[in-house]
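Quick illustration, no need to memorize.
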Amino acid sequence: MMKRHLTKLYRPLLPHGHVPVHLSLPPSRLAHFSGNDLWTNYEQAKGWLRCKKLPPDIETFGVFCNDKIDMEEVEIYGFDYDYTLASYKKGVEYLIHDIAKEHLVKKYGYPEEVGSVVYDPNFAVRGLHYDVEKGLFLKVDSSHQIQLGTVYRGRERLEDQEVLALYKRKQLPVTFLEPIPKNMKMVQLVDIFSKPEMSLMAAVMDYFMRHNLEYQPESLYYDVSTCIGAAHATFHSEKRSNPNLYLHRDPELIPCLERLVQASKKVFLITNSPFETVDAGMSYMVGKEWREYFDVIIVQAGKPHFFTNNAKPFREVDIERKIFLWDKVAKLEKGKIYAGGTIDHFQDLTGWRGGKVMYFGDHPYADLADVTLLHGWHTAAVIRELEMEINKMNTDEFKWGVNWQQVLMALIDDHQNVEGEEAKAVIKEWKKEVVTIQSSLKSMFNPQFGSTFRTHNNPTYFSRKLFRFSDLYTSRVTNLLRYSLTHSFYPRRGALPHEFKSWFV
């Protein structure tokens, strides 16, 4: 019986016409399987899988594509600075957290004990939603469904029944996830600073609950968010003074920029950071002559407003006197520094438009959404979490878990119409095992929330936006050196639910 079952599951692997007729059983015969028959199939399936090689490792420093891209067509390369060209050490998250908690106590009157909370870098993952009204962290998938088991008030996980009682449904309305500003029910915490923000909010909530203190979730969110924003100014000062303490020096960054220049590509920088911050960081990472690599440099751009044409006009920056010059900017010249501006003015002054431009940024929304949706630029997302997640996925434990989960779910799918009570009990056991496997796989990435990029079976809401707004994504800009400047990236052909099952898609 098991031979027949495996042949059905993996028929695409066999040449056409090589499936013996006697192995194909009608569904009516499957209904009469006994519990012993099912466990025999189970053991044979596990034995069959053990004989198969595990999948090859994923390239940790690879570049992954969501759409076909011919790099030969790209003539202009643009970059954000923070977390794109500049890669920060873990200490930055601690610094932002600690500055923000100090502001909470000294400027907003929070209890002195809040000043003693310690940053937990392992609590949250990027891309979670925060329910501003209910004070809950939750993970949502690409179909707007809450992933049960990942809803937290502070660091206290809510039971599934409590979550369903609060929301009345698993699938959230689109108005919750993409809210109107004046009626904001949820916010998505997407940027790199969202992890210290979530850790601080959770710690303060825990303190209030532990001491039975009533609080307003909305006020807590706005207070912490404001303090995180204020911490940025101090952060800029710190990293200007001590770039070696906060910045990684990537030895491949100079070769990466040199290759673009030598290939006669145009290179530009658009960042929200002030010039002094960028200059200190780039001088540390690349050298004092870093500006020679860029044809246009724009600081304090005010993204995302820069990309929606709601920003201020361009101003030239006098870097010696640290002032903006008053006269009109009629052209963008190499060697000069500009601030503000809009994308339409940028394109008019440079002539750089459409698919010949590729812009790299770490924030799928603020950096990439508008330039690809409204202006047709190619986009590449720099997502540092990829390296950690790929390293986890490359372990034998993860590979086996994913493969066995798929085989086990196929066994359930194939036999779930059994009629006997003993056989039905076996199917229930299998379903419980699937849940156990999924929980184990989730915990490999983060015990509370799992992977940044997927729920058990679906991409996360964060991934949905990432795939929509970026043509390419990778963990660092310098991974481009592993590919030629004429490389063609082809997206993987995924099987749609109504298409045939195949190991090859």
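The first strand starts at residue 63 and ends at 65.
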